[in-house]
Amino acid sequence: MSISAFIFDLDGVIVDTAKYHYLAWRKLANELGFEFTKEQNELFKGVSRKRCLEILLDIGGITATQDQFDKWMVEKNEDYLEYIEKMDESEILPDVPKVLDFLKERNIPIALGSASKNARPILEKVHLLSYFDAIVDGNDVTKAKPDPEVFLIAARKLKTAPEKCLVFEDAVAGIQAANNAKMLSVGIGHPDILSEAQYNFKDFTEMSIKFLTGLISK
Ligand code: BG6
Ligand code: MG
Predict the structure, then answer these.
(1) What is d(CA 109, CA 126) in angstroms, rounded to the nearest whole number?
(2) pTM of the full structure
(3) Which one in 15, 67, 105, 147 has a CA-CA gap of 20 to 30 Å to 130?
(4) Which of 16, 93, 21 is nearest to 51 (CA)?
(5) How confident is the model over 103-134, as pLDDT tens digits?
(6) Going by CA atoms, what residue is nearest to atom 12 of ligand 1?
(7) Measuring CA to CA, how many Å separate 175 from each of 84, 128, 151, 194, 210?
(8) Which residues of 114-141 are buried (b: 16+ CB within 10 A; e: fewer)?
(9) What is the pLDDT of residues 121-180, one digit of tens each?
(10) Which atom of ligand 1 is nearest to the CA of 138?
(11) Ligand 1 centroid to 218 CA: how many Å?
């Protein structure tokens, strides 16, 4: 079956925001009196803000009241927003514009499928918003990846059957969500970590245009 629509995750696929999420979570952890390492931050990829805080508090062995939990969610996001405020085109990951241009020139529908509630402002800051025919983000879903909801909504908005959609993802939960949606999953990152993906590339510089044309014209 040929592919007729493309869905991109945001964080780790289009821009490297994991480092900013990490700095904001580490600041909160330090304020609460414990360390938070880059390795632990790996667990946060593709995971909702709420779930990240639950994991962080588990790491620190901290039990929070609902008020504290809500306050720390806001605090982390305010710090994160300060980091992304300074973002510009230079933070777009290598060859992302090349792939987007290729699809746009052929009028192939493109959607964003992200867990982040900050997806739109980030796309605006890096000037990529206009490429997307549909945006589905953390504000639109009730079920987190690996649930396929985010990608199924994206397919619906693009008026394309799930089996004709391809998903680019850097998170294990995201690859599982794409597979659960019966879409073609393409891992962007380490193949050992993203072993459940149907195809794998270290980054977009490794993925040839020939690979894309092959999928579209099949
Ligand atoms: C995902 C990131 O894209 O969005 C996660 O990979 C992050 O690390 C999640 O926790 C939610 O992001 P935000 O911007 O709504 O806090
Ligand atoms: Mg991601």
Answers:
(1) 20
(2) 0.95
(3) 147
(4) 21
(5) 999 999 999 999 999 999 999 999 999 999 99
(6) 116
(7) 25, 23, 11, 7, 22
(8) bbbebbbebbebbebeebbbbbbbbebb
(9) 999 999 999 999 999 999 999 999 999 999 999 999 999 999 999 999 999 999 999 999
(10) 15
(11) 34
